[in-house]
Amino acid sequence: MLHIKCPHCGMRSQNEFSYGGDASVKRPELNKEITDEEWDNFVYNRKSLRGKHLELWQHLSGCRQWIKVERDTATHEIFNTYKAEEEIS
Amino acid sequence: MSQNFRLENGGLINRNKKLSFKFNGKKYFGYEGDTLASALIANGVHLVGRSFKYHRPRGFFGAGVDEPYAMVQLYRNNETEPNVKATEQELFEGLEAKSVNCWPSVNFDIGAINNFLKIFLPAGFYYKTFMWPKSFWYRVYEPFIRKAAGLGVVSTKHDKERYEHKYEYCDLLIAGSGPSGLASAYAAAKNGARVILAEDKPRFGGSLLTSDVNIGNQSGDDWANSIISELKQMPNVVVKNRSQVFGYYDHNMLVMSEKVSDHLPKTKKYHPKQRLWYIRAKEVLISSGSIERPLVFGNNDTPGVMLSSAAKEYLKVYGVLVGKNPLVFTNNDSGYETAIEFKKNGINPIILDSRVNPKSEIIDEAINLGIKIQFSYVVIAAQGYKKVRSADIAKISDDKKKLGAIENIKCDCICVSGFWTPTIHLASQSGNKTKFKEEIDAFVPGKSKQNETTLGAANGVFTLEETLQSSFIAGQDLSKKITNNDNKISLPNVVEKKSSQHDKFWCVPMPEGKNYKRFLDFQNDVAVSDIEIALKEGYRSIEHVKRYTTLGMATDQGKTSNLNGLQLVSDIENKVIPAVGHTTFRPPYTPISIGAIVGREVGKHSKPTRKSPMHSWHKNNNAVFVDAGVWLRPRYYKQGKETLFEASKREAKNVRTNVGVCDVTTLGKIDIKGPDAAEFLNRVYTNAWLKLPVGKARYGVMLREDGIVMDDGTTTRISENHYHMTTTTAQAANVLSHLEYYLQLVWPELNVNVVSTTEQWAGAAIAGPKSRKLLEKLFPYNDVSNEALPFMGYMEADLFGVKARIFRISFSGELAYEVNVKSDNGNFMWEKIIELGQEFELQPYGTEALSTLRIEMGHVAGSELDGRTISYDTSLEGLISKKKDFIGKRSLNREAFTSSDRQKIVGVVPLDKKTSIPEGSHLVKDAKAPLPNKKLGHISASCWSVEYDNPFSLAILKDGKNMIGEKLFVMSPLKNKVIPVEIVSSHYVDPKGERVRS
Predict the structure, then answer these.
(1) Cβ–Cβ contact B740 with A under 8 A
(2) Which chain A residue lies closest to B431 (C-alpha atoms)?
């Protein structure tokens, strides 16, 4: 079971969180004209990366905040976690 | 019956407490502190089971967790447990056990005919033989294999024992209490670290209990005892015996199974049988020791052939002789230790050593004791069927290829030692890439992957002094990192005998003209010849060889067989062992009971049960409950001998003619507050929300980004910046997460807060033509007229001093209201409604009537919003705003979503107006068409229309828009029904929606 550092609550076990997918995907702005391909990429197309991956988790049974987790998908190593609004360099 | 093989004294058992037990129906005696295995051997019983494939007689091979043979069916306190290792099961008064995998008895086993058919049962036999004819698999082969295979019998009774889970955090978890575990635990504990020390056996000390060593002027086991008693006194240390750390998972989480009560005749009151510990450790010290390797020779599975370390353990711990005429066959010095123990107890062993002319302290000691030793000698085959009676032995050439003349010597057991295999399972599970250590011919852990450190024999270190030294240092260093304390422990004086180099020889060549089975894997009956066949047939990867031959599989997971299997593959393939590699070590290290894994989450504890504040009223009024998500809801209120069908019809009919009340507390409720709340709702729902006035409710539909309907419900504007959203019972949690996702991640600029208020409000739906009259009685101080509270209106009202919210919304299609009060007042509200409703012939109604009412009105619910439908399919496209953007809108112009013959919701009525239509049935054009009959749609919900008194269903039907009036067939192969039906509008009752506005 992973041990995830919630930036709001501290180290917590994985079973307090729910997984939310790729955190690098950005929703197209409302009312913006975009191509079918761009929309498809947003809704469906995800890379299944092996290695470092930025992903979303929600601290569901805790503070209910969505957070970003930088995790290695092969080794499960977690490098860093960020608040939702935090800029990632 | 006397214990003929028990020594007069010695051992760590309690001779003052005699215990009686039964094995295969026969009564025996043992002592407190025995295992079932040691007690049986003390009574001279060596035949305990039959092997998996050939049903060959099986005895004892080990003395602990590595045991491949001696599994029994255990009976304890009216429960039975299969495949219990006799070597691990502690004896208790009244224990009963039976052999497994034999019929009719262990002495006469019909399956043993396989042993004579063994030339027909080679590796991959099942794969090769049972392939054809195909139709035979289910009818003939599989039932036969199932009957013949398997070991013990699983109880089909409910397990009444209690199993617990425990979560624990510590600085250092130490797995194994041998010399390295004790030393590192002691050093870390002295440094103030929080330590958990786990030992799988009942006694602490590991190899110290059986080896002839001295630490600080104490014997090994005295030293172990003194360290353990000191550790037990320390508040920062948890010491656990009967506790197996069996899995090393991510982020240093380890799982340990503690057998709290298995050694007792009966679990004590308030105690669990077993406890599963989830331990998150900062550092993990693996001191799991090593397991002796077998030597491979003919018939090496005969009862009486066992590991020399096991024979020594039976002697030293249990005071039991495994034989009175022992032969020790070894390729290293360990066999000598066992022989010396025999000699000290008045038994004369013979040692066969495969080495040419080894020299060491311990060999000298054996010679001085007058033990007969034959160098360059090997056992070719054990003789005897149910027990070793003699051994064929021969001299072996220095290159280990040629055998001399075969001699036969009498013996009643053969103790084998093929050197030691470090127990690297936990390290490997942590992700450690193991490396092959040439000097010991075995794998040891490589670079640490997680925070694990492997010590002592598990790390391939077989001398006590080095083990203690490195373990003290590891305990100190790792704890210092955590506690910043630096207490040094000085190494006590260690006295041990120095060993000489072991022999790489492990497998005795087959003498000419002989055809013995030489077993590698004792549990699965995998012999040298099976591996040879697998390689001949082209299997190369060790993982494939394992699966084809079953080498190293089943409950012992190859603890004694893995390395010999690798040696053989590398010999045949002419590779070095590291090039062959080893199979993956996966948790659990040893079998764990399902009960322990499940823990307390059984029966009603498997999920939370949520009840509305009115639950006890429902219960007292004959409600029959149904699971709705995690909630319990009244399905119907039973009157007399009514069936579900009759009751729901009565309740629904009463709503249509008088008035009914339904508990709607379970609906999801979300409070939405903030200046941007209207804008947020406008983005979440498909329809327009900016202009909803205060005091009004609106129905809304929300989509996922892929355009599929996610949920529906009404949202009410309570005040300027305050909205009250309702969701379906099932989707409540998902909708909240969905809203939080958009507020926190996508549109953080919106000033809005959301919070679940589902449990804060108790809800009652009052529905029916007389509902307004009832409302007037309930709220005498408020104006609830059609003008003051129109359809989709909202008001705050006074329910005899209790603040209430009234929403004029309707799921039933009748004139209806939903009244909410704070949960604490739920019962008061409900009882008031029931009391004042009497004069209007009010009846409570359950979910079944609720469904009937919504189905015949054509209102959609979860069975239509099933994650596959879009707004159009459920006739909710009228709620899609063309003027604004919202979640999922961009997906709606997908080609499939806009096709002209897209599926749509319709009503379905059987032509005979009598036959009920099963939910989930398919709609087809031609009932007699050949299979596969083209499916046009499916029945999503069915009811008995109380308005028209005939069956009515909703369906999602291809091109439903143009199908009204068509005649189709409903087919339900499951119920074996074909029903001719007519397609009608989904709005079966009051299609203009006049009643809700009346």
Answers:
(1) yes
(2) A75
